[in-house]
UniProtKB/TrEMBL annotation:
<keyword id="KW-0408">Iron</keyword>
<protein>
    <recommendedName>
        <fullName>Fe2OG dioxygenase domain-containing protein</fullName>
    </recommendedName>
</protein>
<keyword id="KW-0479">Metal-binding</keyword>
<dbReference type="GO" id="GO:0046872">
    <property type="term" value="F:metal ion binding"/>
</dbReference>
<feature type="region of interest" description="Disordered">
    <location>
        <begin position="236"/>
        <end position="263"/>
    </location>
</feature>
<comment type="similarity">
    <text>Belongs to the PhyH family.</text>
</comment>
<dbReference type="Pfam" id="PF05721">
    <property type="entry name" value="PhyH"/>
</dbReference>
<feature type="region of interest" description="Disordered">
    <location>
        <begin position="1"/>
        <end position="21"/>
    </location>
</feature>
<feature type="compositionally biased region" description="Basic and acidic residues">
    <location>
        <begin position="245"/>
        <end position="258"/>
    </location>
</feature>
<dbReference type="InterPro" id="IPR008775">
    <property type="entry name" value="Phytyl_CoA_dOase-like"/>
</dbReference>
Length: 334
């Protein structure tokens, strides 16, 4: 059987650039990989300072007060609850937009209960293209070259960076994120998404770190994809079923039995990391995070790659002018 496009080449005497053979094997086995001290503390502080600047300077006057939810329930099944089926969200692919925590509003009056700087859940989805500090740890400069080397080690032939976000996980109100698969939201017909998740602050069980179901990427095909109801975005968003044979990645793995969405109880392990750590997240792995009820925030920066050789269609929620060909190349040359 031909190797998957996102499977690394067979081991050679020279370790693959970016990751060692042991790291590649760990990622393939578990579906995630933690690399400590990937960014320096100074770089983390630069990105935190820029984040706080963005939070401080964005105006409330013309903001539609869009709130962020994943559109899934606690078992990871899609729901019809919409966060984001509005123009502000659907036109954010080439912009820098701000999305509120659900619990930042008074249930009775709808008024913000926190200062805006402490009420935002995420900033997205083109920080890498519009804010230099974030581009410098995504696709540009020395870190961009390291990221490109990691992509090559994972078997990407034409890695395309299609979205980037700061996720704030605010103190006291940072919402829980139920089990989900990133490939559902960044779907290619042969799933190919990988997340680069960079901790700018320590992420612990106390402030809502990630948790993973190790190996679930081999058990859990993508069953649903997050799409526009209409190509022009005029009717909001929904979930659309994915045929089982189109939802597995990579297809030449010996897949374990099991299925996502609560049909089988998955066991999750905490992914506590220190600031500066990089976490690579397979697009099909089930992962989640708990609510942050502590007094300490948990700001991270994340961006996602897809394989440019795979089919990315106009039903996907995230679209930018120029289409998929306009997604940022991660070739280490910027």
């Amino acid at each position: 059987m031909a190797p998957s496009r996102l499977s690394p080449d067979p081991p050679s005497e020279t370790p693959p650039a970016g990751l060692t053979p042991k790291q590649v094997a760990s990622f393939q086995r578990d579906g995630y990989l933690i690399i400590p001290s990937y960014l320096s503390r100074e770089t983390c502080q630069t990105l935190l300072s820029k984040t706080h600047e963005l939070l401080s300077e964005f105006p409330l006057e013309d903001h539609p007060m869009t709130r962020f939810t994943t559109g899934t329930d606690e078992a990871g099944r899609p729901t019809e609850k919409t966060h984001v089926g509005d123009d502000y969200f659907l036109t954010s692919g080439d912009q820098v937009r701000f999305f509120f925590e659900e619990d930042a509003f008074d249930a009775g009056t709808g008024a913000l209960t926190k200062p805006k700087e402490r009420a935002i859940n995420k900033i997205g989805h083109n920080l890498h293209g519009l804010v230099g500090e974030f581009g410098a740890v995504s696709h540009a400069g020395e870190v961009g070259r390291r990221n490109a080397a990691i992509a090559r080690a994972l078997g990407y032939r034409d890695p395309r960076l299609l979205q980037s976000m700061v996720i704030c996980k605010q103190p006291e109100i940072g919402g829980a994120v139920p089990p989900h698969q990133d490939s559902s939201f960044l779907y290619t017909r042969r799933p190919s998404a990988v997340g680069f998740w960079l901790a700018l602050e320590d992420a612990t069980a106390e402030n809502g770190c990630l948790s993973f179901a190790p190996g679930s990427h081999r058990r859990a095909p993508v069953r649903d994809r997050f799409v526009r109801r209409a190509v022009d975005g005029s009717a909001g968003t929904t979930f659309e079923s994915v045929p089982d044979e189109d939802g597995r990645w990579p297809r030449d793995f010996e897949h374990d039995e099991g299925s996502p969405g609560g049909e089988e109880e998955e066991e999750y392990v905490l992914g506590e990391v220190e600031a500066g750590s990089l976490v690579l997240i397979h697009g099909n792995i089930l992962h989640k995070s708990e609510k942050n009820t502590s007094q300490k925030g948990r700001i991270i920066y994340t961006f996602h790659l897809i394989e440019g050789e795979e089919h990315y269609d106009d039903k996907n929620w995230l679209q930018i002018p120029g289409g998929p060909e306009a997604f940022t190349k991660l070739d280490g040359k910027s």
